[in-house]
Specification:
About 10% of the residues lie in helices and about 40% in strands. Helix 3 packs across helix 9. It is extended.
Length: about 1550
């Protein structure tokens, strides 16, 4: 079991700290220091370091590696320190002397130390340490190497076999016992010791999970566990108090969504800089705040949410969160091995219909997670989630589907998911729009497969797999027993009288006289606690005494087996030996030949199980050193054994030790124990645990011949023994009866039958049924049957008392399951049928709904009307009882019509019943407006709409009245049948009429609807029809069609007139006679001339006359139809780019009667992963070239061209291969003619290098500094044709040669720019003057402080003498600190100035003292007038403010303004009130009062308001603008 190391400063994944010995040595050696690099420990040997000296430290530490076996592992490190430290490597376990495997290297150019481990294997998996040591201290860091072993290790297996084969067979028994003891000692912890993983999990678990966790780790003593848990929690709280204020709301890891698991807690840190580490199974894992990463941390206020994405099986494990070295939270993540055999399928359902999703799992799962539109679905009124009894079939029922329910639904089981669409089809009946639709009782969905059969097959498959595992385990156990028997049957060394000694120091001596007697000297036993005992026994067995000893055999076995000491014996299987009594005076008995084996009988499974349990116990006892012996067997000799430590009489030692043979067929157990033989008599026996267990031996199988052989024992003494052939032969191992399939929990309705069934591996085995530990019989009303290996229990009519735990036992095996008898709400079918009939009542009356039911109390009863729950009020009363419920509705209104539903719910389920209430009332008035179908001089034909509500009864008649406008009387026209239209033939031309219409039903007459004034005989012409369309054309006929005009003029269309006109003519000629209108909306025009081109127009005619003519049709030739064209020829790609490609082709050839000339072309394109073609041009093009645009860069496309003419489209012509959307390959090259290879930058300013290039395909751009990859602080921006390097705030360390490498498939190109970051030099030191030669002066000065940092620094010297007032330069570009000036004239004073210069400029001068003397002159005094000091300070202000900017996406945006102010104001840029001065994505400059901001590549995120503030001690000013990003 692993244990996570607690380190104070982790270095990398899986790293730990120094060992305890190293820590103790460091404490004694010096002062501990913490490195800036996490995970590095520094020890300083002396208290005060000399100036300029330093202890070793790591600039780059080695990181932990996880490498597949056979690969190369490399650890790298960079160190620093003065003097230069010495670097060595080591490992925690093992040595590194193998130079072929471990190679240590050092690169002088980079200063990098490397440890290479070649062909890693499991032996190299370890923690490696890197030491850096100099005379002032040492630095240590560690890195773990994890090796993933692959495949079967043949070499390791052969070595193990060789180890076993090299053991002496006679010593194999002791080897097995000793190895067994070692394994047990390693695997089993000391009593009371609990796995550390247990404490990690339970300290963060809820109390309700304690029992489950204890059962998982085998912890049984709850009281001790809880006490120790309380202590550990207290210790952890004390540790946590160092770093945290509070931690609460801990939620363990769980699968939240599709492929995502997370855990969370609320944390408040004392120090916000404290580091948080995440571990999995004790190994540190990296995480990020980006949610797209595998492991991520999201912080919301005080809440920390750790997420694991893209879940896989290897993500299972123990996750722990630490703050510094203190553990905060642990959670165990387990991923089940479950998958979908049948996934959910797409479901199409109609509105108000139920929809079903169903799936089948590979393993039983209590309940999967259902999700709909990214929301978790729960059981309720809308959704019903069901699981089959075998927990393999899962279903989701979506009730009463509506348009809001459509979408994607998902099922998640563990980390496996599947999704499908729910499509809700709208009702196509237009009459139902706006009305509440009736709930449908049908159900949509389902896979259409027999899921029950699939689940049964999967259950049988799982049972078969379990049986195969059991068989494999039994086979392995039998193989172990066979190997043990072969080793035990090997000839042991001769007995020298010295017994093997265990921890207890048992010893014994034996001697075989060869005359049928076995004499053995006394053996002594020294136990662990120091007690000693000595027993002696001498006995002889004669044939005449055999009968008497047989009677005493039982008692002697019980008594003598209690001895703890062992000795060597010679046993004759044909003779009985007599043993002397023990300290209690009990008689000895002959020792068994083959211990722990039952000869002549088969073992019961219960006996096997009992023996297995006791075998473990006996092994524990024997392994603690009770003593062991080698046994020699003489088939013709009677043996006598020495006494045990209590003075009891011994018995002959067994050939196979620690085994008891019971003549009645009972097997022995370990230690001193009681057992019951076949006759029921109880006795005692002692043994040290069997090496052969569960063995059944046939007594008829022992055969062989006697043979005498010699052997040598460990002391070298030779001896003889005689044995009778193989003692164990034809061993049969009976695994016993197993359950192929056990019982499953059953849910049954009260009064309904229930069935429990299981299957055994044996067809002839009987069993017993129990309910709540009470045996069931046929008299209890249960039907118990057996069909071969299948056992079944049937309960015909389940009652509540039948609920409970049922158990089936057979041959010592048992299986259990629960029977839950449920009593959900139920209705009598006759009562439900009567309730479902609609209830019809007149408005204002009362009605009642009543429905009896049965079901377990308490029962929740709810009534609904049209989906809304009803509550008691003035018109509604609900009565409830234990057997029925009644709904009373009084003063019913028409709006109460609708669905009435009763819903019953108890703990066992829900039941609903639906009825319908129809309230009858008078109909509403007819609906307008009235439509005039025909209005002539002799009739008015009108039409209206049916009433909105017919009152619950069909319309019988419509009652009409008419009034002539201008009169006061209404004429009754009478009742007409229920068709909403009327034709009034009794009208006068030009008169106006008004109509009143009422609806008549069985419930009465509605209110009237009055029409507007309608005029009889008004001329109303139809509107113009649409232009005629050409259906087909031939040499002698053109077929035309047209449509009815949109406005018929209030009367029906009587016919149509058609006219034609030849192209180029102004004359329209009729096609049909004007007095014979065309009745149909089509016409075949035969009066045409072949080859001419015609156009047509049509008139509509109603009772009022002709309409206006339609618009002319398109011109059409009178000729036979053409054939489609053929394929275009020579289709090729002329040019390509990332977004477009150009095509060219030739016209298809013409073949008379086969393919005609092409009139135009269509170009179609599709991506390689799509199957649908997209047409690039809407109308045909005439040219034979085309450019396809809006392509995706580097995408693959298929292109084809289709020729078209009047005969239709021809066969498409495809390109032979797909096309990549990219330009032709171009080797990278730089396009700037004047690229600077050197630039100087002032320290603190930004450095920018922009290089333009061209390359195709898009190249890979890499920047290097001095041939080393760049640091993270350098920003690189790449585009299709340029790359920019930006250092926002340069430092002197940024100086160097920057190289850009542009590389693609065609080639690569590079360019280097030397960047020198410097600053104004500091002036040189004091200047001294010396005269070494007359007439010369040597100027000597101290070097500038920048001389060491700037290799381009040089000096210049200026001179001024007393006769001249100006300074003249006498020397420049001096790289030393000395200069000799010549031509120094006596009598003059000279002054010298020394300047320091570099690439940035010149420093302030350093003045020299005056050299020489000057002739004194009279002082010339000038009286200067007093001037008033001028104040040049000005407040900050904008000379040129910012202006509005609109930039396209992906382009540069440059903002600038001009400012003034003295003193120089401080400038700050803002975007949306957020400072940009520290944002590296913007280049900000301020040169001579011109402030600018550059955005290299504008994105939508840059949209917003930008402002600039200038501020000084005299005031502040601000200017703002807006940036708009254009897509």
């Amino acid at each position: 079991m692993w244990k996570k190391s607690k380190v104070t400063d982790q270095t990398a994944t899986g790293q730990g700290g120094p060992s305890e010995a190293e820590q103790e040595e460091e404490k004694k050696a010096g002062i501990k220091k913490r490195s800036k690099v996490p995970g590095v420990m520094i020890t300083q040997f002396i208290e005060v370091l000399p100036e300029g000296k330093s202890t070793p430290d790591f600039l780059r530490k080695p990181i932990a590696l996880t490498i597949q076996e056979g690969k190369l592992a490399i650890f790298k490190a960079n160190v620093c320190g003065d003097p230069k430290p010495e670097v060595t490597w080591g490992r925690a376990k093992g040595d590194m002397s193998d130079t072929e495997t471990f190679q240590k290297k050092y690169d002088e150019a980079t200063g990098e130390y490397t440890l290479e481990i070649h062909r890693v294997s499991g032996e190299e998996a370890d923690t490696y340490k890197c030491y850096a040591i100099n005379e002032y201290g040492k630095a240590i860091c560690t890195a773990a190497l994890n090796v993933i072993e692959v495949g079967f290790k043949k070499k390791k297996a052969m070595e193990q076999l060789e180890d076993i084969g090299s053991v002496d067979p006679a010593e194999f028994r002791k080897l097995l016992r000793k190895r067994k003891g070692v394994d047990k000692e390693e695997a089993v912890k000391e009593p009371g010791e609990i796995d550390e993983r247990f404490w990690e999990i339970i300290m963060s678990a809820d109390r309700k999970d304690y029992e489950r966790i204890c059962a998982e780790f085998g912890v049984k003593d709850f009281r001790v566990m809880l006490k120790k848990l309380s202590e550990k929690k207290k210790e952890r709280q004390e540790e946590q108090a160092k770093y945290i204020e509070t931690i609460n709301n801990l939620k363990h890891i769980d699968i939240k969504g599709l492929g995502i698991a997370s855990f969370e807690f609320d944390l408040e840190l004392k120090d916000l800089t404290s580091r948080i580490f995440l571990y999995k199974d004790g190994v540190m894992i990296p995480y990020s705040d980006e949610e797209e990463m595998k492991h991520s941390l999201k912080t919301v206020g005080k809440k920390l949410i750790f997420s694991v994405r893209d879940l896989k099986a290897e993500d299972a494990g123990l996750y722990q969160v630490d703050v510094e070295e203190v553990n905060l939270f642990s959670t165990d993540f387990k991923i089940p091995t479950v998958d979908f055999i049948v996934k959910i399928q797409e479901v199409k359902a109609k509105e108000r219909e139920d929809a079903m999703f169903e799936c089948v799992l590979s393993h039983p799962w209590p309940r999967i997670k259902w999700m709909g539109k990214n929301a978790t679905l729960e059981e309720g009124e809308k959704y019903t989630i069901t699981v089959s009894e075998d927990k393999l079939i899962h279903r989701l029922l979506i009730k009463d589907c509506s348009q809001l329910d459509k979408g994607i639904y998902s099922a998640a089981a563990g980390i496996k998911t599947c999704s499908a669409w729910l499509i809700v089809e709208a009702d196509s009946d237009p009459a139902s729009h706006g009305k509440k639709k009736t709930r449908k009782t049908t159900q949509a969905g389902g896979t259409g497969l027999d899921l029950g059969k699939l689940a049964q097959e999967q259950q049988e498959k799982l049972a078969k797999e379990r049986q195969e595992q059991i068989d494999a385990a039994n086979k392995a156990r039998a193989e172990e027993e066979r190997l043990a028997r072969e080793a035990l049957l090997a000839p042991p060394p001769p007995d020298t009288g010295d017994g093997d000694s265990g921890e207890g120091g048992d010893s014994g001596e034996g001697k075989d006289t060869g005359d049928g007697k076995n004499k053995s000297k006394s053996g002594s036993n020294k136990s662990k606690d120091g007690g000693k005992s000595v027993g002696k026994s001498v006995g002889e067995m004669k044939d005449s005494e055999k009968e008497e000893d047989d009677k005493k055999n039982k008692k002697s076995t019980d008594d003598s087996d209690k001895g703890k000491g062992t000795s060597n014996y010679d046993i004759d299987p044909n003779a009985n030996g007599e043993g002397d009594g023990d300290s209690k005076g009990r008689k000895g008995h002959p020792g068994p030949l083959i211990p722990d084996a039952v000869i002549g009988s088969s073992l019961h499974n219960d006996a096997e199980k009992e023996r297995d349990d006791k075998y473990k116990k006996s092994t524990d006892v024997s392994d603690k050193g009770k003593g062991a012996s080698n046994n020699d067997i003489d088939p013709n000799a009677n043996g006598e054994g020495d006494g045990d430590s209590k003075g009891r009489k011994g018995h002959p030692g067994p050939l196979i030790p620690d085994t008891v043979i019971d003549p009645n067929g009972q097997s022995g157990t370990g230690e001193t124990e009681e057992y019951t033989d076949a006759s029921g008599k109880r006795s005692e026996r002692t043994r040290q645990g069997p090496l052969l267990k569960d063995t059944v031996i046939d007594p008829n199988a022992q055969s062989g011949t006697e043979e005498t052989e010699q052997y040598t024992d460990v002391s070298g003494k030779r001896s003889e023994r005689t044995r009778q052939g193989p003692l164990l032969k034809d061993t049969v191992i009976d695994p016993g009866v197993q359950f192929v399939s056990g019982l499953s929990n059953v849910h049954a309705l009260i009064g309904q039958p229930a069935e429990l069934m299981c299957k055994l591996s044996n067809d002839n085995c009987e069993g017993t049924w129990y309910r709540d530990s009470k045996k069931l019989t046929a008299d209890d009303g249960h039907i118990m049957s057996r069909d071969g290996a299948n056992h079944k229990l049937v309960i015909n009519r389940c009652q509540e008392e039948d609920s409970g735990k049922y158990r089936f036992e057979a041959d010592g095996r048992k299986t259990e399951a629960m029977l839950n008898v449920e009593d959900p709400p139920r209705f009598d079918p006759d009562d439900l049928s009567a309730f479902s009939q609609p209830v019809i009542v007149k408005v204002g009356n009362s009605t009642t709904f009543k429905l009896p039911f049965v079901g377990r109390e308490p029962m929740k009863i709810q009534w609904y009307r049209n989906g809304e729950e009803l509550l008691d009020d003035n018109t509604t009363k609900i009565e409830k009882s234990f057997t029925q419920s009644r709904l009373l509705l009084s003063k019913c209104q028409r709006k109460d019509t609708g669905e009435i539903k009763i819903k019953l719910k108890n703990e066992h389920g829900t039941m609903e019943a639906i009825s319908r209430l129809i309230v009858l009332d008078k109909p509403t008035a007819p609906q307008g407006p009235v439509e005039v179908l025909e209005s002539t001089a002799s009739c008015i034909h009108i039409k209206w709409r049916a009433p909105k509500d017919d009152g619950g009864c069909p319309v019988i008649n419509y009652n009409l009245e008419r009034q002539q406008v201008g009169r006061n009387t209404w004429k009754k026209l009478g009742d007409i049948p229920g068709v909403p239209e009327y034709k009034d033939n009794d009208v006068e031309h030009g008169r106006k009429y008004c109509y009143r219409i009422r609806v008549v039903t069985e419930e009465g007459v509605s209110e009237m609807m009055e029409t507007d004034d309608l005029t009889a005989g008004t001329l109303a012409f139809p509107s113009s029809p649409a232009p005629p369309k050409v259906a087909s054309a031939f040499n002698n006929c053109i077929n035309l069609t047209w449509s009815t005009p949109t406005d018929t003029g209030g009367s029906r269309i009587l016919g149509y007139n058609l006219e034609k006109r030849k192209k180029g003519s102004n004359l329209w000629s009729p096609v049909n006679p004007t007095d014979e209108p065309i009745q149909e909306k089509k016409r075949a025009v035969t009066d045409v001339v072949a080859g001419n081109e015609y156009e047509f127009r049509v008139y509509a005619i109603n009772i009022s006359g002709l309409s206006e003519p339609s618009s002319p049709s398109e011109f059409i030739f009178a000729k036979d139809p053409k054939n489609p064209p053929g394929k275009v020829e020579d289709l090729k790609v002329a040019d390509t780019s990332y977004t477009a490609l150009s095509l060219s082709w030739n016209k298809p050839t013409e073949e008379v009667g086969v393919q005609d000339e092409a009139k135009g072309y269509f170009i179609e394109v599709r991506q390689a992963e799509c199957i649908d073609w997209t047409r690039c041009n809407i109308t045909p093009i005439i040219l034979t070239t085309f450019t396809v645009k809006s392509l995706k860069a580097m995408a693959m496309y298929w292109i084809r061209v289709i020729a078209i003419n009047d005969g239709g489209e021809g066969v498409p012509q495809d390109l032979d291969n797909y096309i990549l959307a990219m330009p032709p390959p171009v080797r990278p090259c730089f396009t700037d003619n004047k690229m600077k290879s050197f630039m100087v930058v002032r320290a603190g300013n930004s450095a920018r290098i922009l290089l333009n290039f061209e390359a195709s395909p898009w190249p890979e751009v890499m920047w290097l500094k001095d041939d080393v990859p760049l640091l993270k602080r350098v920003n690189i921006s790449n585009s299709e044709s340029s790359s920019q390097l930006l250092i926002t705030s340069s430092e002197r360390s940024d100086s160097g040669i920057y190289t850009i490498v542009v590389k693609n498939l065609v080639g690569q190109e590079s360019f280097s720019v030397e960047v020198r970051v410097t600053d104004d030099p500091k002036p040189p030191g004091p200047v001294e003057l010396e005269e070494n030669v007359p007439g010369t002066v040597t100027v000597i000065w101290e070097p500038s402080p920048d001389e060491k940092r700037d290799d381009h620094l040089h000096y210049s010297v200026s001179k001024r003498d007393s006769t001249k007032g100006s300074w003249s330069m006498v020397a420049d570009r001096l790289f030393n600190n000395k200069f000799t000036a010549c031509n120094i004239m006596p009598g003059r004073e000279y002054h010298f100035r020394v300047y320091a210069k570099n690439d940035m400029g010149m420093s302030a001068p350093s003045e020299s003292p005056t050299w020489g003397s000057e002739r004194r002159k009279d002082t010339f005094v000038v009286n200067m007038p007093a001037y008033k000091t001028c104040d040049l300070r000005t407040a900050p202000a904008f000379l040129v403010p910012l202006r509005q900017h609109t930039a396209p996406k992906g382009y540069e945006c440059y903002m600038s303004c001009a400012i003034k102010g003295n003193p120089k104001p401080r400038v700050t840029w803002y975007r949306n009130n957020i400072s940009l001065n520290t944002n590296t994505n913007y280049l900000i400059t301020n040169i001579c009062g011109v402030c600018s901001l550059l955005i290299l590549r504008v994105t939508p995120k840059d949209w917003g308001e930008y402002s600039i503030q200038i501020e000084s001690s005299l005031g502040r000013a601000e200017s703002s603008t807006k940036l708009t990003v254009r897509e």
